[in-house]
């Protein structure tokens, strides 16, 4: 099972690893939140389950776990277990209350152990269902947060691009203005020098200077 994070801590921006599952609150809890959960008046009677003890798979079989090729044929009242024909002489030879599974099934509704097992199975299934729903909600929240973060990144990227383009346009205009001023100045200087050369040549001719 993938690591789960404490939901109360996650809501505060923390990433504490989950330790238990609260069946009533339908959320995962870290060690610190679990201890606080146990003493708070509103949650002290809640049912807390260790996440590591939530079964990944519930295996219901009509065959013996030891001799998988044999079906259950007997019920040992002394040990309160089902057994096959190979288990009977090996593990239940000394038991006095062994009966056929067909006969035992007639009184199965009166078995407290069976009732307890049914209650425990219902509780486990309820916890698993709520845990799965919580995982789905966490997954959906992560997807939404990812989408929002990507939108923010795209928005920030566009802002940076717009800012750079604005700066580029500003500097291009500034550079063009400076170039225009320098070119105008150079042309004026060239004109002034040309006029000075012409006047100098005229003076030279008047004076007869070679």
From TrEMBL:
Keywords: Coiled coil, Metal-binding, Zinc, Zinc-finger. The keyword Coiled coil applies. GO terms for molecular function: zinc ion binding. PROSITE patterns: ZF_BBOX. The keyword Metal-binding applies. Residues 125-181 form a coiled coil. CDD domains: Bbox1. Residues 1-51 form the B box-type domain. This is B box-type domain-containing protein. It comes from Mytilus edulis.
């Amino acid at each position: 099972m993938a690591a789960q994070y404490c939901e109360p801590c996650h809501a505060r921006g923390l990433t504490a690893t989950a330790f238990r599952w609260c069946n009533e609150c339908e959320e995962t809890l870290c060690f610190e939140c679990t201890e606080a959960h146990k003493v708070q008046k509103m949650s002290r009677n809640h049912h807390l389950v260790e996440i590591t003890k939530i079964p990944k798979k519930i295996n219901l079989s009509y065959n013996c776990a030891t001799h998988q090729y044999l079906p259950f044929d007997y019920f040992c009242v002394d040990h309160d277990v089902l057994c096959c024909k190979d288990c009977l002489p090996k593990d239940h030879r000394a038991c006095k209350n062994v009966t056929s599974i067909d006969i035992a099934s007639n009184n199965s509704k009166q078995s407290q152990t069976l009732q307890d097992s049914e209650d425990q199975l219902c509780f486990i299934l309820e916890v698993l269902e709520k845990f799965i729903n919580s995982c789905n909600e966490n997954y959906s929240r992560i997807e939404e947060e990812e989408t929002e973060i990507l939108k923010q990144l795209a928005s920030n990227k566009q802002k940076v691009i717009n800012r750079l383009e604005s700066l580029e346009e500003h500097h291009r205009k500034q550079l063009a203005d400076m170039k225009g001023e320098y070119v105008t100045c150079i042309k004026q200087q060239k004109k002034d020098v040309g006029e000075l050369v012409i006047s100098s040549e005229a003076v030279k001719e008047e004076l007869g200077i070679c």
